[in-house]
Structure formats: C-alpha cells, structure tokens
Design goal:
The protein is mainly alpha-helical. It folds into 2 domains: 1-101, no CATH class; 104-175, no CATH class. It has helices at 2-5, 24-32, 35-47, 75-95, 122-146, 164-171; strands at 55-60, 68-73. A two-stranded antiparallel sheet has the order 1-2. Strand 1 and strand 2 form a beta hairpin. Helix 2 (24-32) runs antiparallel to helix 4.
C-alpha cells in the first residue's frame, strides 16, 4: 500500500462493477504471451517443488520518467489473475458463437462417431483438451527428433523422401 501511495506503482484500476466490460481474451493474451511470465512458468516447471521464480515485470520508474524498474509478482498471483479472466473470456467466446457453428465440436467425437467423453461434463471436456495438448506436445517432440539437421547445401527432406543411400545412412546411424 505504501508503494502505491508514494506513486511507485500505477494506481489500481477502478472496481470491475463501474469499469466498462474488460476484454477478457485480450487480457489473457497479454499475460500468456508475456515473456517474463513464460520464463517464470518454465522455471517453475523445471524446478518442480523447488523455489518458484516470481514474474519480474518491467514497470515505469516513478522517480526516473522514461526508465523502467522490475516488479516481482508471485507466479501464484499471476495464475490467480488468469483464473479470474477465464470467466469473462469464456463469456466473450460464447457471445461470438454463431448458428453455423457445429452443435458438437469435432474434438469430442472419435473417428467412429462415438463421444470420447461426456459432452455435458465441463470437467471431462477440459480433461480431454489437456490430454490432447499433452499428446500434441509429445508428437511434435518426436517429429523434431526424427528430422535430420538442416544442411546449408541441401533442402530439408522428410524421411519418406529419402533415396537408398540416405536410407542406408539412416539405418547405420549416420543420419
């Protein structure tokens, strides 16, 4: 509070009741794409139960106009802000739903037309989305492992396009 009173940090915004409806999606994008947030989140994931690095946000320095100083915000506080923005963002997305949108999104249905999870359960749908992100991440990592390094003299080719010599080199571990 003292820092706020001494104008070391900008004043807090007006309460949400009197403020115009905030752009939940824009604010989520702002936070999620912030490099300091991403770095702190990456460090927290790597350290596990170890010390969690705060999000070090560059802020205007009140005593030196035009200069920045660092403000450490606990990662938990940032995650809490993200959680608070998800409701307004979801309302924004729902308001944009059109009659042309499919009633049942494709990700909820298997290739044989059966529901993968209970479409009425938001927890089941959320778990499925998280699982799909995990599977996608693993698939991308595996795909990167199977690509051969770029050569400055030859264009990148997929393994399906290898000639016999390249296949032999791959099979003996040279590629």
């Amino acid at each position: 509070m003292q820092a706020l009173q001494q104008r070391q940090i900008p004043p807090l915004p007006a309460p949400a009741v009197t403020a115009p409806q905030a752009d939940g999606l824009g604010l989520l994008r702002l936070i999620l794409s912030n490099p300091q947030f991403q770095q702190s989140l990456q460090q927290a994931a790597m350290t596990g139960a170890g010390a969690v690095a705060p999000v070090a946000l560059p802020m205007p320095a009140a005593q030196a106009p035009g200069h920045l100083r660092s403000m450490d915000i606990p990662l938990g506080a940032v995650i809490n802000a993200i959680a608070g923005l998800t409701g307004p963002a979801l309302m924004q997305l729902n308001a944009r739903t059109s009659e042309a949108d499919p009633e049942v999104p494709e990700y909820l249905v298997s290739e044989d037309g059966e529901f993968i999870v209970d479409p009425a359960s938001s927890d089941d749908r959320a778990s499925l989305v998280v699982h799909m992100f995990e599977v996608s991440d693993e698939a991308q990592r595996l795909a990167l492992q199977h690509q051969r390094p770029l050569s400055q003299s030859s264009p990148r080719r997929a393994y399906t396009e290898l000639d016999e010599a390249d296949e032999w080199a791959r099979d003996v571990g040279l590629l």
